[in-house]
Amino acid sequence: MAAGRSMTDAADIYVQALALGLDPAWRRRSDEERHDDGCRFRDAAAAADIDGARTITYSSVGLEPSVDVLLWRMAPSIDTLEEGAAGLLRSGIGRWLTVTHSFIGRIAPSQYVRRPTGQEQSLFDGERSRYLVVYPFTKSTEWYLLSKEARQGVMNEHMRVGHGYPQVRQALAYSFGLDSQDFLVAYETDDLIEFGDLVRALRSTESRRSTVSDSPILLGVHRPLDEILDLLGAG
Q1: For residue range 154-168, what is the model confidence (pLDDT) as tens digits?
Q2: pLDDT for 142
Q3: For the whole model, what pTM was predicted?
Q4: What gap in Å lies between CA 182 and CA 173, rounded to an integer?
Q5: Pair 70, 134: CB distance under 8 Å
Q6: Which residue, among 24, 43, 92, has the nearest Cα to 234 in the 3D structure?
Q7: Which run of H or of E encompasses 77?
Q8: Beta pairing partners, 211
Q9: Pairing mode, strands 183-189 and 131-139
Q10: What is the number of other CB atoms lying within 10 angstroms of the CB of residue 7?
Q11: Are 10 and 77 in contact (CB under 8 A)?
Q12: What is the DSSP-derived secondary structure letter of residue 113?
């Protein structure tokens, strides 16, 4: 990536929400084996963040069925995301992890937002909030058959509601042709109650009529990888 260039300014940025579940049998390995697995996985994670790639780690231990680790990843190509994931899954504790969800998208300028605010960013710049919420999102055929003006009016209402919750940041990645959903949506917040209020407020906007699917919703707690490995028992 060119020096001085923001991640959100890059021409091609692909993002992935990668949810991994740990085989319960791994916890029955010896302390020495689990520690060694954690060290090997840590090395693989460091090796994966090269060539413009970056991974932010979240824990979902006991929060989501079949999900213990949630990785929010970015890279300039799908190939880089694939190679990084392959390195993780063949190293140490990675050999005991199963991909339970993987959502892919591409960051691109929104056709509905002329001047993005700090709320609409890729969630890779600046300080991280405590919680990440990600989910796949698909709209109806009827939505895409509306005129551009009609869709803009609906989205203006949607964005007005969102701007009433300035502490909640959002990233929207386009998944058309890359994954089963239309979009990959991610929110960052330090206040889950405020986030819940935002979601409830958005339920009563006109845009909700066009929603076909917005599940599963995955919640992760931002933690350094070493801290996550300690929680799993690899410390």
Answers
A1: 999 999 999 999 999
A2: 97
A3: 0.90
A4: 9
A5: yes
A6: 92
A7: none
A8: 139
A9: antiparallel
A10: 18
A11: no
A12: -
